[in-house]
Amino acid sequence: MTVTKPESKSLTKEKAKWMYQKMCEIRQFEDKVHEIFSKGILPGFVHLYAGEEAVAVGVCAHLNEKDYITSTHRGHGHCIAKGCDLNGMMAEIYGKATGLCKGKGGSMHIADVEKGMLGANGIVGGGFPLAVGAGLTAKLKKTGAVAVCFFGDGANNHGTFHEGINLAAIWKLPVVFVAENNGYAEATPFEYASSCKNIADRAAAYNIPGEVVDGKDVIAVYEAAERAITRARNGEGPTLIECKTYRNYGHFEGDAQTYKSAEEKEKHLKELDAIVKFRNYILSKHLLFEQELLQIERNVAETIEKAVDFAEKSPFPTEEDLLKDVYVSY
Amino acid sequence: MTRTISFSEAINEAMKLAMRKDENVILLGEDVAGGAAVDHLQDDEAWGGVMGVTKGLVQEFGRERVLDTPIAEAGYIGAAVTAAATGLRPIAELMFNDFIGSCLDEVMNQAAKLRYMFGGKAKVPLTIRTMHGAGFRAAAQHSQSLYAIFTHIPGLKVVVPSTPSDAKSLLLASIFDDDPVIFFEDKTLYNMKGEVEEGFYTIPLGKADIKREGNDLTIVAIGKQVHTALKAADLLKARGMETEVIDPRTLSPLDEETILSSVAKTGRLIVIDEANPRCSVAADISALVADKGFDYLDAPIKMITAPHCPVPFSPTLEDLYLPTPEKVLRAAAEIIGDETIIAV
To answer: Transketolase-like pyrimidine-binding domain: which residues (chain B) (predicted)?
Structure first.
């Protein structure tokens, strides 16, 4: 296990622009969902990704459409970073027929298989074997693809964590396991639930590299992901990356977050914000100008408004949709 | 051309034919080859599964397509789900259906639901082969018949063959089906011989087979209980009764029409299912006929099932646990109102 300092050797202007845009999309999308949910418009459970943008974006910056990701119940950020359509996502969260899953999945099951997004997942720990399976296809069909498994700290005590990583390791599959350690599994602190200091320490048990990175620093994530994905594409097997991060909102919308201290929230939301940090980095390295950043922010805001408008104007699915797509044939 | 081969050989042949036909078909499971990475072991000495059902596959298709897995069902069954969703056509072997407890999430929440949850944008052409059935003196954790669990779950298909010929053709149909199929193999049928066609052929999932025709009584029986039904039918014939024996072959989809048509003809129904009775397939088929075929019935429906207890180890107890032709006769006597039938 190593802790790596960011260097950003490979970050181009274009890549920085894409990453900043995606981080803004995730933040503004989630802030907007938070706002709409509080009005009581959205059905069901919603788990927001705001605060963790650097992880999804830093990793997905290395992926193409042939690559796969598996996600979690907190999956909006992964979807956006993997290129899912924002209109389709918002409509799905509204339960509309125009949603990415035609309103059948909702926030917890947004997927776009054609884009390699194998689904948000309502089952904690559900993604490990699923990422391994996508990695198995990539290896056997020699597609050159990698599969990234995003998971939270709550999943690292699940049996599938062990079974999935072990299987990927013995078969040397092109899989990267990315822990998003936001400190809490629902309301239970990581330190209480996990008998390890770092999730990445557990990599030693599978004889694979494990790396802890500052998950609020998109450059750090980007570089760690580059090492892991290169290793995976070279047929050297899986890596476990642990990104120490923080969720700005509660476990679910409506969570009073009594388990978080006021100081902790203040520090993360004000001082350690991943987007502010990356913005300052971009400016200090002269990758983009202030005007360009402002333009990106304005464009994203417009896109999100359009997504909400699209979702609200879309029709709900109807009775004839109820029994569709249970099977290919029955 | 047919020849006589065993149930186990028929299943083996189906997998070979499928793997020859489509290179996306792979087999994975615990010791499906056996002895992975053992230097001195030649592939022709490999186990080929604990019962030898997959013997010879690793020789023909190599260890890239016949994958031994760790004993970690959630890991490899879950992997098989997305291997299927991303372009392979895996056959995953769950050695005993009793082990589903270790990987039910992967089957129930992932394989079964991906397509629906994703609005039809995914398909999961996965076949899970698994052993079931009592009578092997294997006790409570290696003898159950848990097909009702899977039949209950939308998104899954469930196949329970009773003969070598059906096993081969239904397994081929399952492997090339685009939905997840749970394929049950009764371990006590593996040595059963039967006439089996050569070459590649399938029969559609969801089509029951009338194993014997008759006008006086319908028996619907599942898996190896089809043979209990056929024995009972022989005994009943000696008393002048013609029994129709229906083998649903697939429990999901279920061929309701064939069952209802038969009851419409005979007016009497016995269902034989060696699984436990509560919320069972026997109860489901009985409910189907009570709901949609009540007017056809001349007598109450009878279920011959295991009792509500785990499968016992001791041979004396296990024999009491399973359905028998005598139990069928007793039920027949009751619904026909002729006690002399029992004396046959």
So the answer is: 5-192
